[in-house]
Amino acid sequence: MTSFVYFAASLIAIAVSQDPLPGVEQVVPEPAMRIAPRAPHATVLKKVDASFYQKAKAEIAEMMESGKSKKECRDAAKEMKKQVEESVKAQQKVLDKMERGKQCTTRGQKAVNNAIASLGGAKDKVKAAEKALQKASKKKINFGDFSYDQLTEGKCGSFFNQQIWKTAKTAVTQATNTLNRAKINQKAAEKALENAKIEAAKLVRKCKCNTKKLLEKTRTDMNNKARAENTKAWRKAAHLQCVLDGKQNMNNCPVGTLPEVKPVKLEKSVEKACYQEWRSTGNYGVINAAGQKVKFTLYSLPEMKGWVKNDPNWKRRYIKVCKDEGMVPIGCNKVWSTYDCRGKQGANNCMGMPQGFNCNIFGGVRRATNFKGNLIGYWTNGEVYSGSYFYTTNGNPSTSQMYHPLCGKYGTTQSWPKD
């Protein structure tokens, strides 16, 4: 086999290793851990390796002996590097064309639109019922003519026992009942719209998280699939060029950074869409509303800024942030009765952490879950303690810092909660 055939074979191997991944447009199912894995950093290759250098010298010598010029040898080395660069560039284009989260903005919007329409209809019915009640209340009643001896002062039965009055009264009662039902239906429609918006936000976030994970998984798979062959070709080309340049000091002959597919730029809402998740292990368990010790899952939600330690509005916001995701805030357990969050707030408003987490739960949470970033939750029982509702991994919260709200979800005695 001639040297150029050898080079060509290497280049073919590189090209094959860089075939587009099948099904890259498919959405991958969400794993148990919702935080998307970090893609590996670019591969920085070592400087010239002595064994590779000697092989390159031998190959150059063989090529020169077969009649190839120095320029032809150099062109072959450049072509090898170019093939690596072009194959990576092709894969980068595939990744760059993938969805980046804009397709997620309409998730759940149909249900929201339907809820808006339903609320509009409910409001129209309230207005119609109000008008009907006003009309029934304002209707004039003609009791007819009476003679003097048919009337007695202080006795109105002559009027209110007449059918014309009873008919008018029935009409007003029915209109009043219709209005009350319409108002109840309007409140239900308002709640349905609120729930539809919450559900839509969850669907959008989940879609964006899946999008981020698919992009990172695709990039990782692309690089992993091609890395071995590309590294071999890139390193070989660098060694051949060093030999051709006549460099004897290998420290002056860097191999350089292997080209790899780079992450695509994501907008902030997509970048932060995924949250960290941890399932209870071993004997760790929490007490649910039925008084059972059950398995549970903890979640570290996307960062928020502006926490005010003693502001009841921020307590309500913490509750809402968790509840919007079908979760509850977390705090101390009943081992310390004074600080029992479940006992004070109710199991559906606070999950008391296991005894092993201690009452200052954040050390225990960090050790058990390995959650990253600044975490925040109730300090004790969900009421102000030592001037603050909340505590963080760095002590009292600061309005200028970003914190991940900690929330929990109850499972059963046998299994963890479903997503």
Describe the structure.
The protein folds into two domains: 1-140 and 170-271, no CATH class; 275-410, no CATH class. It is built from ten helices and ten strands. The protein has helices spanning 3-17, 50-65, 70-96, 109-138, 157-160, 163-244, 268-271, 312-323, 341-345, 361-369, and strands at residues 276-279, 286-287, 293-294, 296-300, 304-305, 328-331, 351-352, 375-378, 390-392, 402-410. A hairpin with a 5-residue loop joins strand 2 (286-287) and strand 3. The protein starts with a helix and ends in a 9-residue tail after the last strand. The relative contact order is 0.13. Mean pLDDT is 84; it is low at 1-41.
As a percent range, the share of strand residues is 5-15%
Major beta sheet summary:
8 strands, mixed
Structural class: alpha+beta
Tell the overall outline.
elongated
Poorly predicted runs: 1-41
Helical proportion?
A: 40-55%
Number of domains: 2
Q: What's the average pLDDT?
A: 84
SSE series? HHHHHHHEEEEEHEHEHEEE
Distance between the termini: 59 Å
Q: Which radius of gyration do the C-alpha atoms yield?
A: 36 Å
Tally the beta strands: 10
> If helices are DSSP runs of H or I spanning 4 or more residues, what is the number of helices?
10
Any chance you could write out the topology, listing elements then pairs?
Layout: H1 3-17, H2 50-65, H3 70-96, H4 109-138, H5 157-160, H6 163-244, H7 268-271, E1 276-279, E2 286-287, E3 293-294, E4 296-300, E5 304-305, H8 312-323, E6 328-331, H9 341-345, E7 351-352, H10 361-369, E8 375-378, E9 390-392, E10 402-410
